[in-house]
Amino acid sequence: MSVIENSKLTVVGAGSVGSSTAYASLIRGSARHIALYDIAAERVEAEVLDLAHGTQFTGTSDVVGGSDLSVVEGSHVVVITAGAKQNPGQTRIELAGVNAKIMSSMMPQLLEAAPNAIYVIVTNPCDVLTVLAQEATGLPPERIFASGTVLDTSRLRWLLAARAGVSTSSVHAHIVGEHGDTEFPLWSKATIGTVPILDWQPADAAPFAPEELDEIAVDVRDAAYKVIQGKGATNYAIGLSSARIVEAVLGDEHAVMPVSTVLDDFHGVSEVALSVPSIVSASGAVPIRETTFDASELELFHRSADVLREVAAQLR
């Protein structure tokens, strides 16, 4: 496939995450046309109006939206953010029951309006919801996937870059597994430039130690809880990371991103959606099967799969 001309992105859900995704996409020029859809008519119309008032300053993109499903028609990418939000002290998995019901009723309608779109699920718990949505729609796994650990990976690289004294673009490290409490860094492949993470010597500071890396992993895992405790929701960074995923699809970039697809015998894991480095293009997302894990990472990966498989089974 190739770059999608006259591209259309629809963001489903006009809450803080959905509105931030539309805002980030508008500023970045992620799509030529941006639509915002929500059943809450007054809210979505107000958000669209607010966004539209700034289009003089954002380039060639335009923005429309509303509470009628027709706004979804013609979409090349649909980003789903609708659902109950995560409250302070609440885990992503605890959201599963409520948001699974929302997803099951919404997906058939969206698919009817935009049958050829790529679907990106941001609503939490995004991994479990991706499995249920893929089963409900029958879409091939590459066409319906979650934003996964793209944001978690950005958080990791930001922390490592600050400690190492380099730019975030020079840090090559990934968070994999669940977007949630069982996620973990793929330390065996982490480098700064071409230097393995434990071999890096920061200027005027000690090298990384394994114990410090463990602490950084915990900080990344718990970052959302800290933000939610302070301001009630995470929205800016997930909006930006969602916009970046959209760009990889619409630009047919074949970019490597740790998105979450329903896996098929990936290191022995099947029928569970977990984040692994994947090729994201106009065809959707395809896991990179050549990705390797060391023994401890493989154990953590299977643990993450077991947790999510159990949650999905309870919701079927």
Please identify the structural class as seen in this structure. Answer: alpha/beta
Taken in chain order, the helices and strands follow as EHEHEEHEHEHEEEEEHHHEEEEEH
Separation, N- and C-terminal Cα atoms? 35 Å
Helix content: 40-55%
Count helical runs: 9
Query: What is the β-strand count?
Result: 16
Rg calculated over all Cα atoms? 19 Å
Main sheet? 6 strands, parallel
Which sequence of strands runs across the widest sheet?
A: 3-2-1-4-5-6
Percent of residues in beta strands: 15-25%
What are the segments in which pLDDT stays under 50 over at least 5 consecutive residues? none
Q: What's the overall average pLDDT, rounded?
A: 94
Silhouette: globular
Walk me through what this model shows.
The chain is an alpha/beta fold. 40% of the residues lie in helices and 17% in strands. It contains nine helices and 16 strands. Strands 3-2-1-4-5-6 form a six-stranded parallel beta sheet. Helix 4 crosses helix 9 (295-315) and helix 5 crosses helix 6 (210-221). The two termini are 35 Å apart. 48% of the residues are buried.
